[in-house]
Automatic annotation (TrEMBL):
PANTHER family given in the database record: PENTATRICOPEPTIDE REPEAT-CONTAINING PROTEIN, TETRATRICOPEPTIDE-LIKE HELICAL DOMAIN SUPERFAMILY, DYW DOMAIN-CONTAINING PROTEIN
SUPFAM superfamilies: TPR-like (SSF48452)
BP GO annotations: RNA modification
Positions of PPR repeats: 47-81, 111-145, 173-207, 235-269, 297-331, 398-432
Coiled coil regions in record: none
PROSITE patterns named among the record's database cross-references: PPR (PS51375)
A Pfam family the protein falls into: PPR
Domain of life assignment: Eukaryota
UniProt GO MF annotations: RNA binding; zinc ion binding
All residue ranges annotated as the DYW domain in the record: 614-706
Record has NAD as a keyword: no
UniProt keyword rRNA-binding, yes or no: no
Full protein name: DYW domain-containing protein
Length: 706
């Protein structure tokens, strides 16, 4: 059967036509543009309003080309058609000239709505000078025109000009009053905001909330709460604004009390509580809020992932990010940066690569902060090639990226390359900051470049506005100490203009361990005890020094001292990623792993191969005064050796074995792993608390200087 042709009338009050037009607009507003188009096509009778509804719908759903095609085939147009066209063309900055051209060619006298549409476009895209010029040219203005330009001034931070326009307005509604009030609050001019609030002839819940939020954002939380308590009515935004104020001020207990009193728990409030609990270290409370939420958005997921990441619940952060992706939630910038930080901390390279792929899918590879985090992740996972590739592809680079590369190469023992990047950075016109100098000095320290380190340190006073801080002096003490210049390092500490901190004395202590200098170590340990009375680290090191020099009685007394003072020593542990799982090993506890039998067998096999290669265990790395056989047995079960053994069992040949350790690698294990790499023809990359060690063919990238 042949359908009758579509008829067109410029206008019609027929109920069916009016209902169809309303349906088109409603579907388009809901994002169902295909449904709107189908409703339009099904109409046997269309009016100009029908075309206008579809035209506006296409623009609203970011389909400007389709909108323009509708405009071109309209049988007739009215002023509303041109208003819809101009409004749509202002949505994108590059079509603003087309919007201005359309305004100039309207065959009808433009209305105030027409002018205001273009005015809103200029303000939206930050073209305030064009907005002011158009506003002054408008033959007629209404309170909406004034309010749009008022918002433009406030967005640009031009508060005084905004106030001048506000005073010029012939009529002000509550929206204009509230906009001016919010502008004062955002500028920190809270007294003027309150004066304006008190002058308002009429206030609504938005006005009250703006004033409460203004107090809260400007650190006056108690005043915010007083005003909040006397509000005639409150909505979800009011409660959430007060909640944000408490969290921003670090008053999480008050925020929790308010949160529990809220009649409803809207999504932004729940997200804010997760952030607040995470900042306070209350991970269980953050998790409880997350699990009770019926609705979650990307902000919810990024908040709980951040809470896990900043409190070192790293495995939970990884599993939550994976769950988020499984649920089809697109990651946002904060969640990507958090999870890259987790991947870097755990050195889980395979998972980091997956996050990189997710970044590419979401086009986050153009964001400088996300790419900086990506570079850091690859560096800390031991993959310098990937880090360098990401670094080279991104422009323009900021100082954080340069610093990441300099520090990364330094930590991998590639001092020459690190210093070459340092030179490239200055040649590129980038001004080094304090962290840059720390990276360059670290490169010199890890590679024994004493002269270069002295030159860089001295250049800080002459070539830059940055004065050496405690971190820079710590690098110099480390540099001199590693080179065996312990007396000079101690003199530098005594003459430095700053009070030496625990890091500086710790650097000297580590150098004393390397060069077995008990006398200076005792000086360093005494100072460390005053600065960190609960830290066992320096005394464990001093005990190592006594042991390595055969002073068993002193070592025994030191251990008794540690025990009597109830000092804390971080237990040594190592881990390795395999099959997207992190396998953890603790020194002396090989039986804790589910595959302990195979690991023990591999350790025994390695012992035999090491003995055949001339390896002899260095018992000075065992604190206890026991016989040599017991020392050898103790060294065998150090956590890094267990992790290497597991890697040999699981990681395919041709792939590097990547091991992480929370403390500095044991000197005996360092010697053993060099030989293991040679015997097994495998590359082993070990990241300890200070740096990377690349073991291959019997050599280490640190050249035994660490």
């Amino acid at each position: 059967m042949r359908l009758p042709p579509v008829r067109f009338l410029p206008s019609s009050a027929a109920p069916a036509v009016v209902d169809a037009n309303a349906r088109i607009a409603r579907l388009a507003r809901a994002g169902n543009i295909e449904g709107a188009r189908a409703a339009f096509e099904a109409m046997p009778l269309r009016t100009t309003a029908s075309y206008n509804a579809l035209l506006a719908g296409y623009f609203r759903n970011n389909l400007p080309d389709a909108a323009l095609r509708v405009f071109e085939r309209m049988p007739s147009r009215d002023l509303a058609s041109y208003n819809a066209l101009i409004s749509g063309l202002t949505l994108r900055r590059h079509t603003l000239p087309d919007a201005a051209a359309a305004l100039a060619t309207i065959p009808y006298p433009p209305s105030v709505i027409t002018f205001t549409s273009l005015l809103r476009g200029y303000v939206r895209h930050g073209l305030l000078a064009d907005a002011i010029r158009l506003f002054r040219q408008m033959p007629e203005r209404n309170h909406i025109s004034y309010t749009v330009l008022l918002g433009g001034f406030l967005d640009a931070g031009r508060v005084d000009e905004a106030r001048g326009l506000f005073d010029e307005m012939p009529a002000k509604d509550v929206v204009a009053w509230t906009a001016m009030l919010s502008g004062y609050c955002q500028a920190g001019r809270i007294a003027e905001a309150r004066a304006l609030f008190d002058e308002m002839p009429k206030r609504n819940v938005v006005s009250w909330t703006a004033m409460v939020s203004g107090y809260a954002q400007n650190g006056q939380v108690n005043l915010a709460r007083k005003l909040f308590e006397v509000m005639p009515e409150r909505n979800e935004v009011s409660w959430t604004a007060m909640l944000f104020g408490y969290i921003q001020a670090g008053r999480v207990e008050d925020a929790e009390e308010l949160f529990n009193a809220m009649p409803e728990h809207p999504l932004p409030a729940c997200n804010a509580m997760i952030v607040g609990f995470g900042q306070r270290g209350m991970v269980d409370a953050a998790k409880a809020v997350f699990e009770r939420m019926r609705e979650r958005d990307d902000g919810t997921w990024s908040a709980i992932i951040k809470a896990y990441e900043q409190n070192e619940f790293l495995m939970e952060a990884l599993s939550t990010f994976r769950e988020m992706l499984h649920d089809g939630i697109r990651p946002n910038y904060p969640s990507v940066i958090s999870i890259l930080t987790v991947c870097a901390a755990l050195a889980v390279l395979d998972y980091g690569k997956e996050v990189h792929a997710a970044m590419l899918r979401c086009s986050f590879d153009k964001d400088i902060f996300a790419v900086s985090a990506l570079i850091t992740m690859y560096i800390k996972c031991g993959n310098l090639d990937k880090a360098k590739k990401a670094f080279n592809m991104f422009e323009p680079k900021d100082v954080v990226m340069w610093n990441s590369m300099i520090t990364g190469y330094a930590q991998h023992g590639l001092g020459e390359e690190a210093l070459r990047i340092f030179d490239d950075m200055t040649l590129a016109g980038m001004v080094p900051d304090g962290i840059t100098y720390i990276g360059a000095l670290t490169a010199c320290s890890y590679t024994g470049k004493v002269k270069e380190g002295r030159d860089i340190f001295n250049s800080m006073d002459t070539n830059s506005a940055i004065k050496p801080g405690a971190e820079h002096y710590s690098c110099m003490v480390d540099l001199l100490g590693r080179a065996g210049l312990l007396e000079e390092a101690l003199d530098l500490i005594k003459t430095m203009p700053l009070e030496p901190d625990a890091v500086i004395w710790g650097a000297l202590m580590g150098a004393c361990r390397m060069h077995k200098n008990a006398e200076i170590a005792e000086v360093a340990a005494k100072n460390l005890l005053e600065l960190e009375p609960g830290n066992a680290g320096p005394y464990v090191l001093l005990s190592h020094i006594y042991t390595s020099t055969g002073r068993w009685e002193d070592a025994s007394e030191m251990r008794k001292f540690i025990s009597s003072r109830h000092l804390n020593k971080s237990p040594g542990c190592s881990w390795i990623e395999y099959d997207k799982r992190v396998h953890l090993f603790t020194s002396g506890e090989a039986l804790a792993h589910p595959e302990h039998a195979a690991i023990l067998k591999m350790l025994e096999k390695l012992d035999g191969l090491l003995m055949e290669s001339g390896y002899s265990a260095d018992g000075s790395f065992v604190l206890h005064d026991v016989d040599e056989e017991q020392k050898t047995h103790s060294l065998r079960y150090h956590s890094e050796r267990q992790a290497v053994a597991y890697g040999l069992l699981k990681v395919p040949e041709g792939m590097p074995i990547r091991v992480m350790k929370n403390l500095r690698v044991c000197g005996d294990c360092h010697s053993a792993i060099k030989l293991i790499a040679k015997i097994t023809s495998r590359e082993i990359i070990l990241r300890d608390a200070n740096r990377f060690h690349h073991f291959k063919d019997g050599f280490c990238s640190c050249r035994d200087y660490w």
